[in-house]
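Lecture notes, unit on protein representations.

Consider one protein chain, 180 amino acids long.
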Amino acid sequence: MRTIISRDTFPLTEVFSIARGSRTKAEVLTVKVSRDGFKGFGECVPYGRYDETPDSVAKEIQSLPEFYDRIALSSLLPAGAARNAVDCALWDLEAKSSGLRAWELAHLKQPAPELTAYTLTLDSPEKMERQAKKNSFRPILKIKLGGTEDLSCLEAVRRGAPNSNIIIDANEGWDIETYL
């Protein structure tokens, strides 16, 4: 089996902020595995929070032996971005080579549409309210918190999107007293 890694950097439309920092781009590694004329693709975003960099994740993937499969993968790579990207690529490869969907290979029911949350970045209450108004048509908003004005931000989002369900995500920005 052949494994190829490519790197891309995608600029974000807006700064994305959480309690631990901000991003202006997403660095993505794409893994392509090929065997017998079939190609499977998977991708990951290495995350510094887990001591991952594009270089360290690429090195993990490059450490794989020439022959491996989905079953062996969990003993070859630790949990993390590298294993996730390769695992996705192997599922894609197996689905394409077998003519089945990944959910069929996993013996699952056919997936149905799911509601997902749209994330609003941590910002000032005024800017978060504008983000909420812009996205008020969405049924679920996840808001990043972890700053000094969290309650004001939550209230602003509620004003901006009065009919949306709200999920709060403080990304380790709260201690137990703040949570309580």
